[in-house]
Design goal:
By secondary structure, the protein is mostly helical. It folds into 2 domains: 3-58, no CATH class; 62-201, no CATH class. The chain has helices spanning 3-22, 32-45, 60-78, 81-92, 95-112, 115-133, 138-151, 160-169, 173-236, 240-243. The protein is globular, with a radius of gyration of 30 Å. It starts with a helix and ends with a helix.
Length: 244
């Protein structure tokens, strides 16, 4: 390829990953699937990929494994496995135990299944559990999103990137887990700490605002009462000039 084609190829690669990271191309309506299709077409256009070599760049083993994991999770969902876990959590846990349960359950399942599927499965579980416990679902949804990504780093089957790494490198499943499992576990504990701290900070802010508004309400009421008392006293007070 010429230097211009090389620069164009790198530009397409970087622009595609910007869209993958942001979820949308800045200032346009191009989402991740659109960026992937446009990027693939431009790679053909600039000569980075030849038509007769296109199939060699598709790793069918990864696609088959992802599809197989989706089938497994779908069968577990139809069998009521995740509903059983929900009932077990709701009936045996207290609200302050829900956050670490969601974090470590999402991380554990994401380590052996694909994290995207676990996010889809865990969201209804979290919404149902928080509704029955009477707590706000936002912190627990954040826990699902963050813990599933952290836990997926532990094994080869955790996410598509690990599947590709394991396929091309030949690293054994056990060796991969042995080296990255402790990293994912430490990440889950740090995630729990950060989310707990954010939740505690939000509760403190709400309590402070509530107490401040209550104090302002009491202060305004006292000022009004004091003004009414002075008005009544002035109304019944006889001026000294009239006495003289």
């Amino acid at each position: 390829m010429s230097d211009l084609a090389t620069i164009a190829t790198y530009s397409v690669f970087i622009a595609s990953y910007v869209v993958f990271a942001l979820g949308k191309f800045p200032g346009m309506k191009i989402d991740r699937p659109g960026a992937a299709i446009i990027g693939a077409v431009l790679m053909f256009t600039f000569g980075a990929v030849q038509a007769h070599n296109a199939l060699h760049f598709i790793h069918f083993g990864t696609i088959v494994l992802l599809f197989s994991m989706m089938l497994v999770v779908a069968c577990l969902h139809l069998a009521g496995f995740f509903d059983w876990i929900t009932e077990l959590v709701v009936t045996r846990l207290k609200p302050h135990h829900l956050l670490p349960t969601v974090i470590f359950l999402s991380g554990l399942l994401s380590a052996f299944f694909v994290n995207d599927i676990i996010c889809i499965v865990m969201v209804p579980f979290v919404l149902k559990a928080t509704c029955r416990m009477g707590v706000k679902p936002v912190p627990y949804l954040l826990a699902v999103a963050t813990a599933s990504n952290i836990g997926s780093t532990a094994t080869i089957t955790g996410n598509p990137q690990n599947i590709l790494i394991g396929s091309f490198s030949g690293i054994a499943y056990r060796d991969f887990l042995w080296h990255l499992g402790p990293v994912a576990l430490v990440g889950l504990f740090l995630n729990w700490l950060v989310l707990w701290w954010l939740g505690a900070l939000a509760r403190f802010r709400r309590a402070f605002q509530s107490s401040a508004s209550r104090c302002l309400h009491i202060r305004d009421r006292d000022i009004v009462e004091l003004g009414e008392q002075r008005a009544r006293r002035n109304a019944f007070e006889i001026p000294r000039d009239s006495i003289c």
